[in-house]
Amino acid sequence: MGKLVVIDHPLIQHKISLIRDKQTGTKDFRNLVEEIAMLMAYEVTRDLPLKEVEIETPVAKAKTKVISGKTIGVVPILRAGLGMVNGILSLVPAAKVGHIGLYRDPETLLPVEYYCKLPTDASERDFIIVDPMLATGGSACGAITLLKQRGVKNIKLVCLIAAPEGVAAVRKEHDDVDIFVAAVDERLNDHGYIVPGLGDAGDRLFGTK
Q1: Could you identify which of 45, 144, 162, 163 might form a hypothetical disulfide with 181, taking C-beta atoms 3.0 to 4.6 angstroms apart as the criterion?
Q2: Which residue of the set 108, 120, 175, 190 is catalytic?
Q3: How far apart are CA 39 and CA 33, in angstroms?
């Protein structure tokens, strides 16, 4: 079964507080989301396999370790997930980036797919799905399903803030997927927003309403 990892590093928790604050403007919000994603990437990539190589330092030959050719893919759920991509790429620059577009039907709250573009070798990659908010879990489950339909075997879901309902939904539909978050909040409200949350992550990232 997949695990739920709440990353409680002090730097991450401090920055989460800043993005929750309604006084934080678009520029600072965008920078903070990218920084948090980068910090979370340390934990998300903890199990990447290593291989031993021999190099020559200015002093002597040495046996050391490098990542053993693991192919990584990063998939933001449009549009808010875009804000997390560069933070992860700053640590894993060789990763390829796919995109999945899902919107939530305002009546049913269910996800509707409108775009999916993945690397041609998707089935050979381990994927990290990124989306700042895990609310109802509908978009996350939809994105995971799309990847599995294309032959992806190893998937991790990385979100900044989750609602218990969203975690439960992913657990129910995809119990093999590890979920990484910086906070699990109290609940969802009647409109499907996380409480206390941080509002609409996409609007705050891109300055829209």
Answers
A1: 162
A2: 108
A3: 10
Phi-psi region of 163 (alpha: psi -120 to 50; beta: other; left: phi over 0): beta
Show the tokens assigned to 198.
Answer: 């941080």
Q: What is the pTM of this model?
A: 0.92
Whether residue 46 lies in the annotated active site:
no
Catalytic residue, chosen from 20, 79, 104, 150, is 104
In this prediction, residues 10-18 reach a mean pLDDT of 97
Give the CA radius of gyration of the chain. Answer: 18
Instruction: Count CB atoms within 10 A of the CB of residue 42.
Output: 12
pLDDT recorded at residue 117: 94
H-type helices in 23-159, by residue range?
26-44, 82-89, 138-149
Question: Is 108 part of the annotated catalytic residue set?
Answer: yes
